[in-house]
Specification:
Blueprint: H1 2-11, H2 15-22, E1 25-31, H3 36-43, H4 45-48, H5 58-73, E2 80-86, E3 96-102, E4 108-126, E5 132-149, E6 155-172, E7 190-195, E8 202-210, H6 215-227, H7 235-241
Antiparallel strand pairs: 1-2, 2-4, 3-4, 4-5, 5-6, 6-8, 7-8
Length: 242
């Protein structure tokens, strides 16, 4: 009976809200204002469903929704915002590469290593100034299982993980927009490339965010990287396109 009530509540949610709960992700393109019903539906989730197993993935509230709001604020009403979110996490088996044996020296008996590749978020927004902003985030996790014999002769297993987020942002400028080098360089953890020669200039910013991160820390890193391409746009060009 309880499950039926919870399932009935989930069925009343926005379709993308249901996809986040049941499938842990979605891929869709909507106009700017069509995202607001999803955000409103997510905001009421805990009023109707309280069990943790039926909650949306944590990165929904901590990362995806804040990015949706910020990007939508820079878009015109008919602009399209595309999102592909795979929030199943790094435990999904289809994201795991092959397990390999690494060389080991005593007292270590064996080391098994697996790489996990999790391309968990892609976003594309048509902005008000005529440019297009694209963002992609991929988590790479190195998992090691170490088998070791201690001085008393007992064999123990220990797991070690190391996480790195690879984030890429590209801003395709409107035709005729000028580019200039900002007075201060980007932070050392951000690499910027400007591709010229065509009708539309593309500014790319790449970064590695190393280590386990909370949702708030990830959001801050993604936002800092997303704003970097805007520092390379000449103010005069911004005024002409606004």
């Amino acid at each position: 009976m309880f499950w039926r009530k919870q399932r009935a509540a989930i069925e009343r949610f926005h379709p993308l809200h249901r996809a986040l709960v049941l499938e842990r992700g979605f891929a869709v393109s909507l106009r700017r204002d069509e995202w607001e019903p999803l955000i409103a539906s997510l905001a009421t989730h805990h009023e109707h469903v309280r069990r943790r197993r039926w909650a949306p993935p944590e990165r929904t509230r901590e990362v995806v929704v804040p990015l949706l709001r910020i990007m939508a604020a820079d878009m015109r009403p008919d602009g399209v915002l595309s999102v592909a979110a795979d929030l199943r996490g790094t435990d999904a088996k289809d994201k795991h590469g092959p397990t390999v044996d690494l060389p080991a020296q005593r007292p270590v008996l064996s080391i098994k290593q697996t790489w996990v590749t999790d391309p968990w978020l892609r976003m594309r927004a048509e902005l008000r100034d005529g440019s297009v902003l694209e963002l992609a985030a991929t988590e790479r996790v190195r998992k090691r299982l170490v088998r070791k014999r201690n001085p008393r002769g007992k064999v123990k297993m220990k797991g070690k993980t190391r996480s790195t987020h690879l984030v890429r942002v590209a801003r395709r400028l409107p035709k005729g927009a000028a580019v200039y080098r900002p007075a201060t360089p980007p932070p050392g953890w951000i690499r910027v490339r400007v591709k010229q020669g065509g009708a539309r200039v593309v500014i790319r910013a790449d970064a590695k965010i190393v280590g386990e991160r909370t949702g708030a820390e990830l959001t801050e890193g993604l936002l800092l990287l997303s704003t970097e391409p805007f520092r390379w746009t000449a103010p005069a060009a911004q005024r002409r396109t606004s």
